[in-house]
Amino acid sequence: MTVEFEQTGPVKGDLKFTIDRKTVEKGLDIAFNKVKGTLNVPGFRKGKVPRRIFNQMFGEESLYEDTLNDIFPTAYEESLEGVDADIVGQPQIKDIVWEAGKDWEVEVEVQLKPEVKLGQYKDLEVTKHDRDVSDADVEEALESRRKEFAELVVVDSAAEEGDTVVIDYVGSVDGVEFEGGTATNHSLELGSDSFIPGFEEQLVGVEPGSDVDVNVTFPEEYHSEDLAGQEALFKVTVHEVKRKELPELDDDFAQDADDEVETIDELRAKTRESLEQSRNDFADNARDEEAIQKAVENAEIEEIPWDMTHDEVHRQMDLFYNSLNQQGMSPEMYFEITQTTEQDLHQQFEIGAEDNVRTNLVIEAIVKEEGLDATEEEIEVEIKDLAEQYGLGEDQVREVLSTDLLTHDIAMKKAIELIGSSAKEVLEPVEETEEDAE
């Protein structure tokens, strides 16, 4: 096999290679055997037409396209062994010279992995996020836990914001009751905003056993076109008012809230530890993301090949389908429920796909620049973690993922850790102005 390669652009090249006649002949035999059983030639039983007769009647060139489809993938992969370039995506055939009795000459256009010129990627200045946990933060978290254990108790007093009222109601527009506007013994938490705007506010201050007229206007964009923008009257009867009764912050509550503690002081300490871990995790992730973004912005990449972006879209789609499968849902079910199509999903993942490719290219360039690699011990730890994460055996993980892929992923993680851990948290958070909010 002879191979010639010429780079024709920042991310494009022309690759020429030959397919030897012996390989072509084997491919022609396979193509002929596939079609001969379908031929009806006078004087010959079906499937018994000699190759010589076939060539006379139809021409050997009629087998060329099927032959090429069969032998091209292997020949192309072999040709890449003679090319000192990082080729990505799928080749596009530009020209083929095929003559009987001779080697075939193939020319394809290929896309190349772009060159990355790294800028600064270590010691980057990033936003400093608050990692401190105050006593007030701990008490606020405990108060949230108290609310989780709150009990609704019937009270003989006027309803307040946050209370739950048990009501009957009948709604009408211009004196005519409408579908869905009637209910009995309905529990409604005041302030939950679960009803039409203005409804809940008019029940604050009502006494148990009272009847109230509630006047509201349906929103212009209400889901029922017949009611959108209409003024309505609700006749409401209030049966009960229930109020949340919170438990005391004592040892009994601590034991109910967490079976690993005995006292409220232990629960406070554990709550503080959990908040500190959450704050640190958030700050670390925010630091890493900002540092990586700046490292990418500091790098120069002239052009991103279309194939790399296309492959990233389909990689994201495959991950999404796998996630659906783990939830027991097929893609068809998802599209039916969401009233979308696979094309809609493709377009959704197109957003940000090029940025993802750019980020991966920069991180890979940092891996190369820093000479990052993975040890055998690190690979074994990664296999064990993946096996536990997906409920598989370690041998199953080894069958699915090659050592090269695992090494690549570990090295990428090391590069991300390098970028993030070297970053300096010095910048103050940017306050959002009213213009930004709009």
List keywords for this structure.
438 residues; alpha+beta; Chitinase A, domain 3; Trigger factor, domain 2; 4-stranded antiparallel β-sheet; 22% strand
Determine the oligomeric state from the structure: single chain
The major β-sheet equals: 5 strands, antiparallel
Per CATH, the architecture of the largest domain is Orthogonal Bundle
Give me the secondary-structure category.
alpha+beta
What is the share of helical residues? 40-55%
CATH class of the largest domain: Mainly Alpha
Structure, explained:
This protein has 14 helices and 13 strands. The chain has 438 residues and is an alpha+beta fold. It folds into three domains: 111 residues, Alpha-Beta Plaits (2-Layer Sandwich), CATH 3.30.70; 95 residues, Chitinase A, domain 3, CATH 3.10.50.40; 174 residues, Trigger factor, domain 2 (Orthogonal Bundle). Strands 7, 8, 9, 10 and 11 form a five-stranded antiparallel sheet that branches. Strand 3 and strand 4 form a beta hairpin. Helix 6 crosses helix 10, helix 6 crosses helix 13 and helix 11 crosses helix 13. The protein is elongated, with a radius of gyration of 35 Å. The model has no long low-confidence stretch (mean pLDDT 91).
